[in-house]
Amino acid sequence: MIETKVETIIHKPITEVYAYVRNMLNQTSYNQSILAVEAINKEATEYKIQIDLGIFKLNEIYKINEAVENKLIIASCTANGMKFTDRYEFLETGKDCQLTILDKMELKGLFQLSEGLVKMNLKSQMKENLHSLKKILETKI
């Protein structure tokens, strides 16, 4: 199991940060490993996503398992060789929002052989993605 955690303060109201992150269609704007996203139900809790993890590409379903407005989003994806869960935590800090993202990934079968490489890449990629998200939100008028 690979666990990766990143966090930052975004200088925007928590309501704006939560709304942007909750709209999973925005993932392609800041998450470099997400190539395409499409909502597949009207509740916008399930998405068809195309993921590029460097060593392999996946077309899978990303599902929001839990959403508590302005506080928490838990979403997961299960594929043949892996399963991952993303936990987004939102905390109001004055006028700003502290965003913490925890990713838990379990590689299965032959994919387990790539765990060391995935672990190294995942941390740096998550940091870059969070930096991109922060930049997008803070420059938004």
Automatic annotation (TrEMBL):
SUPFAM superfamilies cross-referenced by the UniProt entry: Bet v1-like (SSF55961)
Gene3D superfamilies from the UniProt entry: 3.30.530.20
InterPro entries in the record: START-like_dom_sf (IPR023393)
Top-level taxon of origin: Bacteria
UniProt name for this protein: Polyketide cyclase/dehydrase and lipid transport
